[in-house]
Amino acid sequence: MGLVGPGFVGAHHIDAVRRLGFVDVVAVAGSSEESARRKADALGVPRAYGSYEALARDPDVHVVHNTTPNYLHAPVIMAALAHRKHVISDKPLAMTAAEARGLLEAAQRAGVVHAVTFNYRGNPLVQQARAMIAAGELGPLHFVHGSYLQDWLIEPTDFSWRLEPDKGGASSAIGDIGTHWCDLVQHVTGHHITEVLADLTTVVSTRLKPLQATEAFSGSAASQREPIAITSEDLATVLVRFENGMKGCVTVGQVCAGHKNDLWFEVNGTTASLRWLQERQNELWIGHRHAANQLLLKDPSLVSPEARRYAHLPPGHQEAWSDAFRNVIADIYAQIAGRSERISPVVPDERPSFPTFEDGYRAACLVDAVLESHRNGGVWTRVDTKEMART
Ligand SMILES: NC(=O)c1ccc[n+]([C@@H]2O[C@H](COP(=O)([O-])OP(=O)(O)OC[C@H]3O[C@@H](n4cnc5c(N)ncnc54)[C@H](O)[C@@H]3O)[C@@H](O)[C@H]2O)c1
User: Fold this and answer.
1) pLDDT digits (tens, 9 = 90+) for 258-313
2) 72 CB under 6 A from ligand 1?
3) What DSSP state is assigned to residue 216?
4) Pairwise CA distance, residues 24 & 63, whole Å
């Protein structure tokens, strides 16, 4: 594999791929040859390229991972597809739904494996929730609710390229983390969100941008800054409707003190409920009306067969973010390596359990619908996925 954009999350892609044991990490490409060489040396990667085009041309690179800032996702992916490389892109797939659709169609034409790292799908208890719902253990579902709250953008000196529309997209909080929640609940329930009603807020409307670029979550302080006006949201409330009639709501914010990666969802059915919190990811709450509520602790011997292959440690040993990330990468590479027949899908005849560009396109349509709903004063807006071709 080769990776373009060796910043914060890029290192975790490389770590996950190395844990598979059958893939060589061949090259990284950065914004310059010098920075790429520095990153390659730090990560123990042999080749360093100063451009993504050069990495895409390397005949030893069969899979391109794309962990650049959002505005570079499309050109990097198109360069990889031009050389018929499999592509694993981080989220959001693209800046707009139209751009995402172009990438989906180009990937389908190229006939390669395409994936987007909505990595929370890889948690064993997320798969357990999905299997329980697919087996009808909650009865018909009627309500899905939750949040993704963080506090790392609460101060005017907190800054990221995510807040600049030309680099991150017109949406900030929804595009960056709201899409994780939407992908997760759609994956778990097996139903798509078809309508949204959004109320967006920009709590910190002026920020002090560092004059020199800093890496995401590096904690490095900048000495020189300039004030810039912020137009994208850092706080959002969204009501959602699903294709099967389920109702739901989600709150998303990056300015909520004390919340770090406070991602959770709850699904309510007629006979039972499920709740999963990312920050307590080894526990699954199961709610009952006529019996005591339960807390299922992650245990390979207690989860369903579909979830078992995502749990690698005995009970009592905690599995975490990077383990779930590795699980998603493992599913993608299983298909790339032609080993997908070894994996039994959770629901027969279903698409791959990892997120593809279709899911990336769907997420981009959701973001566009959220922005349109808010722009029009908070009105119900259809998530328009057009006639989405299935791969
Ligand atoms: N799945 C997740 O949970 C998760 C977590 C964090 C970030 N992300 C996504 O990953 C992507 C990267 O985010 P990050 O937090 O790692 O950002 P980052 O700023 O830490 O890293 C981006 C890297 O891209 C490099 N880059 C910039 N221009 C380039 C170019 N022209 N060619 C090659 N490299 C270039 C930068 O130098 C930097 O090293 C974003 O799309 C983000 O949404 C996903």
Assistant:
1) 999 999 999 999 999 999 999 999 999 999 999 999 999 999 999 999 999 999 99
2) yes
3) T
4) 10
